[in-house]
Amino acid sequence: MTLSISDLPAEILLTAPPRTDIFVDPGGAEPTLNATRLLGTPPDGPFQLSARVRVEFAGTYDAGALLVWVDERTWGKLCFERSPQGETMAVSVVTRGLSDDANSFTVPTGDPLWLRVSRLGPNWAFHASTDGAHWHFVRHFALGEGAAPVQVGFVAQSPVGEGCAVSFDQIAFVPERLADMRSGA
User: Global pTM?
Assistant: First the structure.
């Protein structure tokens, strides 16, 4: 599915079917690239895309995420995800051929999490917030985009579970550069 990044709806509801994910396992398992996605092509230049995310967590690794997509082997996602220990947390994955996986911080069960992706030029920043006002730095990275246009958007996944529903609201697209990725603003 595609969407207009400059004209976003007030809320996006996505459902992840069972055993869906976007992950290229560095351990050698077959890539899984079947998660429910809603993507659009942003305008050129720096921007910030953010949303408050609520997930009806049921299974391990159930998540709602913001996604920066170049192609099947080049992308990054910032997730609100359930850990194997049952904790909910901010998690980031960057894929340049193979995926990595990095946990950031836990979020009290039942609370939403705000996620933000920022294009700073040829590089990207991920931030997460428990209140939508103070942003925790999660990751700074480059994807090495080539000729393919970058798309950004929303993902719902349930890699080992029976599916989950994800709500994205308080969605904001700001067509300007993030001033300081480490300031908390």
Answer: 0.95
